[in-house]
Amino acid sequence: MSQLAHTGTLTWKLKVANAHLLTGRRPVLIDTGPANARALLAQRLARAGIAPGDLGAVLLTHGHADHAGGAAALITPDVPVVLGASDRLITERGHNPELVPTGPGARLVKRFIDPDFPPFTASVHVADRMPLDQFGLEGEYRVVGGHTAGSAVVATPGVLVVGDLVRGGFAGGSIAPGFAQKHYFSDDPQRDLGLVVDLLDEYRPTRVLLGHGGPLDVSAARRRIDKLAGR
Predict the structure, then answer these.
(1) DSSP state at residue 158
(2) Residues linked to residue 129 through DSSP beta bridges, in sequence order
């Protein structure tokens, strides 16, 4: 196995959203959870034997408060924070744009969302694709849009991280987390799910990691994702 290869993952639920730790030559964090989960994130990293300064990078799937809210505390000269370029204004303002609910449950969830978080400027803004070998991982960070204009996925051998293009389960993923569903918020959920279908065809992962719920076993979830996407 190459020293740059993806060697493992850990997923932590941080209050309302997931963060994922990918380990290759160096550990890379995908998403940070909300700002009020910073202590919880530090605890999870410590249990994994990792200090924040050990991270090769922080890769954000998008700029919303529940995924990027803790990023301001992690940026250092040695730990770059990577973001899709079109989400730059969201994180520099530290405020979610208007969220479009996809159903009655989402309208209820929206009432409890804090849209504000500590603003920050990401170290790296990606407009299209960026290889991960500089962080010790095999794969790429790729901006695909959808849920937000700058939404990005992280593709490594066998694993695809798709952020909020799709969610898993009910009650924030506490029940049936591997049951694929349209996300709570999107102005076009069918488009987002279609993006997932195309990415599954291109990268052919065995597991899909999500921002809420999951993971998804592709062999079990693919037919449902196709149906939700109208394919």
Answers:
(1) T
(2) 142
d(CA 148, CA 171): 23
Cβ(96)–Cβ(90) under 8 Å?
A: yes
Instruction: Provide the domain limits for residue 157.
Output: 8-228
Does 150 reside within a domain?
Answer: yes
Q: Mention every residue, 6+ apart, whose C-beta is less than 8 A from residue 106.
A: 184, 185
Residue among 45, 17, 44, 43 nearest 31 (CA) = 17
- Per run of 10 residues, the mean pLDDT along the chain (length 231 residues) is 56 97 94 98 96 96 98 95 98 98 94 96 98 94 98 96 97 93 97 98 97 96 96 90
The answer to the question of residue 73 being in a domain is yes
**Whether the model pTM is above 0.85:** yes
E strands present in 171-215: 175-181, 207-209
Is residue 56 within 8 Å of residue 76, measured between CB atoms? no
